[in-house]
Amino acid sequence: MRILGTILVCAFLLSSCGAKRRAAEAHKRTMADQAGMAGNGVSSPSGGAMPGDSGKFVYVPISSIEEYISTFAPIAQFEMQAYGIPASITLAQGILESGYGQGELTRKTNNHFGIKCHTGWEGDYAHHDDDEKGECFRKYNHPMYSFRDHSIFLSSRSRYAPLFELRKDDYKGWARGLKAAGYATDRHYPQKLISFIERYRLYEYDRKALPADYAYTDQPETTEEYGVHVVQQGDTLYSLSRKYLTTVPALMELNNMKNSTLAIGQKLKIRSQASKK
After folding, report:
1. By three-state DSSP, how is residue 228 classified?
2. Do 205 and 231 belong together in one domain?
3. pLDDT at res. 43
4. In 3D, which of 197, 198, 222 has the Cα closest to residue 94?
5. Are 197 and 171 in contact (CB under 8 A)?
6. Residue 134 belongs to some domain of the structure
7. Does residue 246 share a domain with residue 179?
8. pLDDT for res 53
9. Last residue of a domain, one of 178, 209, 240
10. Helix ranges (DSSP H) in the chain
11. Are residues 192 and 254 in the same domain?
């Protein structure tokens, strides 16, 4: 498992670097330093190795949900094998909680899951306005440590224990269970996670991480529902793409738009799975 862990983490780092060829050369050198430490990883309680922390803050820029998925899917699958949390759930939570890596909190802390400091946290932290002003959030030097802390956070708290009794391909059960256990206050939290998983077929990453002989349940058909956004003063397609976690081309295609011009009062169709948290 240690060898597999090192291979997967190295693959994750290399894919991240490959996806960021436009980044500054200094950023590339930092990523290379991280990858070079993979052989000195330490074992987690579940046996999954992680590279040592270089002590440098490494922000991995992401430009779309698709890029977020391709960049972080390997580490989500690695965490699934080490801790049993479906990769689809980890990816969907990361997309939603971090605004696919574009959120202000994530940019300054590499915190992809909105995990607050909580009693006993001894790592780095930053203050950020959330439910209350100036709340304490955990900070990591690299996104991979956020993914590992997310695994430890869920697997070490008794209120999430029932989730680990579910089938490993039951992403709907996990989505509903997270809300029931108090991970989020948004009453639509399960539907948002499920929508991301089904729209982007994230359950396929679960299958790749599970044994070849795993007996899967039948995959339900994906259905899409739509909402409506009424254009307000100051709205742009870019600002709406950020708000609803989608892209400008996707919004234009969905609404049969030939240009990006908006008019106040104009009604735009929005996919429900892209609704803002």
Report:
1. strand
2. no
3. 38
4. 197
5. yes
6. no
7. no
8. 82
9. 209
10. 2-19, 25-36, 65-83, 87-98, 104-109, 143-155, 171-180, 189-199, 203-209, 237-243, 248-254
11. no
Q: Which two tokens stand for residue 31?
A: 């990523």
What CA–CA distance (Å, rounded) separates 42 from 45? Answer: 10
> What is the average pLDDT across 133-154?
95
For residue range 217-237, list pLDDT tens digits in order: 655 544 556 788 889 999 999
Distance between start and end Cα atoms, the chain: 36
Comparing 135 with 46, the larger pLDDT belongs to 135
- Cβ contacts of 72 within 8 Å, gap of 6 or more: 12, 91, 94, 112, 143, 147
Same domain? 39 vs 83: yes
**Contact predicate 8/35, CB 8 Å:** no
SS3 call for 135: strand
Note down the domain range covering 59: 2-110+140-209
* In a shared domain, residues 163 and 60: yes
Instruction: Say yes or no: 203 and 255 in one domain.
Output: no
| 132 within domain boundaries | no
0.70 surpassed by pTM: no
- Condensed to tens digits (0 to 9), the pLDDT of residues 52-69 reads 788 899 999 999 999 999
Query: In the numeric block, which tokens belong to residue 267?
Result: 């009604």
Q: What is the mean pLDDT of the chain?
A: 80
161 or 45, which is more confident: 161
**Residue recorded with tokens 């742009």:** 236
The pLDDT of residue 24 is: 34
Q: What is the mean predicted confidence (pLDDT) over 4-19? A: 48
